[in-house]
Amino acid sequence: MWLFFFVAPLAVVLLIGGLLAGGIYTIVFLPIALIIVVAGLLFTTWGRSTRPENVPGERERVQPLPHTDHANTAPAPSTPDQLVDARRQQQ
After folding, report:
1. What are the boundaries of each domain within the chain?
2. How far is it, in rounded angstroms, from Cα 58 to Cα 52?
3. The model's pTM
4. What is the spatial distance between Cα 8 and Cα 37, in angstroms, rounded to a whole number?
């Protein structure tokens, strides 16, 4: 998507330059700009069409991660001394 911000102004300049000036704009830059624009549009539509939310039946299979409440766990040690004591208990 970010590529369009660079290619779109370039394509406009090259189209205007190719129509008005001719020469190298028409021979080299115009086909390159058109190939980049068409490839970007194709890859964008292909990427959006393969997202799970766009495929029929896939929306139901994609489930969010379960949220669990960890109220019974001890808080993490916040001072260096508590961290050393916690490591000693684990050994």
Report:
1. 2-49
2. 5
3. 0.40
4. 8
- Closest C-alpha to 17, from 6, 5, 28: 28
Residues 6+ apart with CB under 8 A from 5: none
Q: Distance between CA 86 and CA 80 in Å, rounded?
A: 10
Dihedral Cα 34, 30, 19, 13, nearest 10 deg: 80
Three state DSSP letters for 3-62: HHHHHHHHHHHHHHHHHHCCCHHHHHHHHHHHHHHHHHHHHHHHHHHCCHHHCCCHHHHC
Q: Model confidence over 20-52: pLDDT tens digits?
A: 777 776 777 777 878 888 888 888 888 877 776
